[in-house]
TrEMBL record:
Assembly: Homodimer.
Any one Gene Ontology molecular-function term assigned to this protein's record: metal ion binding
Membrane topology: Multi-pass membrane protein
Gene of this entry: mgtE
Protein name, UniProt field: Magnesium transporter MgtE
Record domain CBS: where: 156-222, 223-276
Keyword Cell membrane tagged: yes
Native organism: Saliniramus fredricksonii
Keyword list, A-Z: CBS domain, Cell membrane, Magnesium, Membrane, Metal-binding, Transmembrane, Transmembrane helix, Transport
Amino acid sequence: MTKNQALLDLEIDRNVLADDETLAIVAQALRTCLRDGDKKTLRAFLDSQEPADIATILDTLEAAEALAAMRHVDLYEQAQIFGYLDPEYQIELSDLMGRRELARLMSAMSHDERVDLFKNLDPVAREAVLPGLAKAERDDLRKLASYPEDTAGSIMTSDYATLTPDMTAKEAIEALRNQALDAETVYQAYIIDEERQLVGVISLRDLIVARANARVRNLMDTNPVFIRAEADREEAAQIISRYDLIALPVINGGDKLVGIVTQDDAMDVQEQEATTDFHKVGTVSGLKANVRDASIFVLYRARIVWLVLLVFGNIFSGAGIAFFEDTIAAHLALLFFLPLLIASGGNAGAQSATLMVRALATGDVRMSDWASVLGREFATALLLGLTMAAAVSLIGVLRAGPDIALVVALSMVAIVLVGAMIGMSLPFVLSRLKLDPATASAPLVTSIADVTGVLIYFTIATQVLAMQAT
């Protein structure tokens, strides 16, 4: 047994993705195999791993090293591994390939992954690789690439299985057997007529349990769930999730079947949308690269706009404090409780906004639910405010006496209540205006709650302390 083989066998037993240290050991072992020309060990290791795991390992190598390692597996597995790599890394590897090698790889890729790669290539590379593809592949590539980004058509694949209504169950199973190598899935087959219009859908299970001479038209579901190619891709993901579909058929304006959106593509969409929403909640916009690979300028650009806007928004807090400077001058103890109260309102608002943004995104809450949600949130915020007021009242008495304690307690209830109402309502307002509810970010809600909290606190202080003085 060679040293390289011993290292790789150790990592196979320990799971190559256990931790960063383990991954580094495996990557170094692969580098050693490449340097020593130990093809046998390299092939044995790669053949023993899942494509997704190989992609994770290759991602830690230099692009030239990763490409050299990939060339030790067959073309079909290369295509699978390539599909798991980040788009930016795919482009790096593509730049190192010759035109013919890249064309062969793209021919072996699934239709949707092939078009994703094609869209990411620069125009010169696109024109260079097209002649290396078969005419049918070129036509399919151009058709899929023509759909606008963020539509269902942009994430669909044309690798689907079709049947005709007049087939028997036996003929249909044989047809699926012949299409299996090229189809993304054969567990669901789509029934089309002479004009390729979608007329039904049938599962492989239904065909297997049916009598051999039973007609597909009598077995199929004649009311299939579908989506139009121009619909939003997030809607496609939601439909797949709602109806627990393996794949969702996509039709064009003429009701012709043009592709399917598979469950794994829907999961990718949901992950991307969740990432985008998380970024918006943190007032980070336009960050398409991952944090590890993004440059300092990209990270700066994604964050600076909102931070500057929020700086100017917080000026209103300063203006509010200035407006009540006479009250503050007469009762300096009020300043001690200011950060505590303002932070409480912002925190309550941020919590409410996070809950509502998520609920609207998942469909748990709809615009028609606003009144009932408002009432429940009001009651919850009131209880939260009373509890927090009781907690700070003792501090108020010990620090500044009963008069200030009363002001702090009343302010806490009002500020938490208003902050929660702002946080809950803003996502609904944005949704009504056809804007993304995720724009109701925690920093934005906090800034609005801060200004409101300052006004509430010092207004209550002015009124209550004036009454106590008379």
